[in-house]
Each structure stands twice: as C-alpha cells, then as structure tokens.
Design goal:
Blueprint: H1 10-18, H2 25-36, E1 42-45, E2 55-59, E3 64-69, H3 71-74, H4 87-110, E4 114-119, H5 124-140
C-alpha cells in the first residue's frame, strides 16, 4: 500500500474506492420499484438549484424530494456499525452527515418541499409504496396535476 494512502489497510482502501455516489444497488432497486408503480421522477437532482443538496429521486411539480440513506454513512439506528479503526474520524463523519441531513430537511421544508428519507435496508417495494403514498397525498392536496417525466 502506498505511503500516501489515507486508508488503514489495503482492504479498507479497496472497499472505500468501490463506493459510488450514485446508482448504488439500493438506489437502482428503489428506482425500479417506484417506476413499476407508475411514478416518474428525476434522478440525482437538486430540489433548489442554489443549495448543494442532491435528492436521489425528485418530483419537482409535487415538490417531493426522496433521499436514500446508507446505513453506515448516515448512522442507521438499527444497522450502523462502529468503525474498528479511526473510530473518532468515522464517528465525526457520520455525525456531520446526520447534521447535514437535518439541515437539508429544514431548508427544503422552509422552501415548501416534502422530504422522504429511506434507509438502504428498507425493502425497495415497501419504500416505493411509501413514496407513492406521499405522492398521492400531495396530488390530492392539489400540489400538481401530474409528475414530471425524465428527459
């Protein structure tokens, strides 16, 4: 392993390099399940262009933003594991992510958006049903005539 590597071991380095920012297996499963319910959405879009927060699924006309949170990265109360090495670093990283998630929820709510957060461990069909229920509620409330379609 290189002297300049930030990783505590070659295995950790390989694992971290395999992490992607989008199109993860849980995201793809959620998108397929939501699409199967007839909902159309944008992928990886900012609800508010001037705010650096990207929703995994976005329904602009409904003002609905869906975030799929990883159990490790966002501190899932059921599945988060504590890092064995660099524990203080990773604890701070997760804490910062959680603060940013709360800030994102507040900023979007203030701007009139509804935020749905889904944990990566939730079954895709159940998570899609949750998204569909919120979208239906917003449509009934007159939020929008229909969803957007992906370009």
């Amino acid at each position: 392993m290189s002297e300049k590597s930030w990783a505590s071991s070659a295995g950790v380095r390989k694992s971290m390099q395999a992490n992607t920012g989008r199109d993860t297996r849980p995201e793809l499963a959620l998108r397929r399940a939501v699409h199967a319910l007839g909902l159309r959405y944008y992928v990886n879009r900012r609800p508010i262009k001037s705010v650096r927060r990207t929703a995994d699924l976005l329904f602009p006309r409904l003002r609905l933003a869906v975030f799929l949170d990883g159990c490790f990265w966002h501190g899932c109360p059921d599945h988060h594991t504590v890092a064995k090495r660099n524990a203080a670093f990773w604890a701070e990283k997760v804490s910062t992510n959680r603060r940013r998630d709360a800030e994102t929820n507040a900023v979007l709510a203030t701007a009139g958006w509804i935020v749905v957060r889904i944990w990566e461990h939730e079954p895709a069909e159940e998570a899609a049903a949750k998204v569909a229920r919120v979208a239906a509620r917003l449509r009934r409330a007159g939020r929008a005539a229909d969803e957007c379609t992906e370009p």
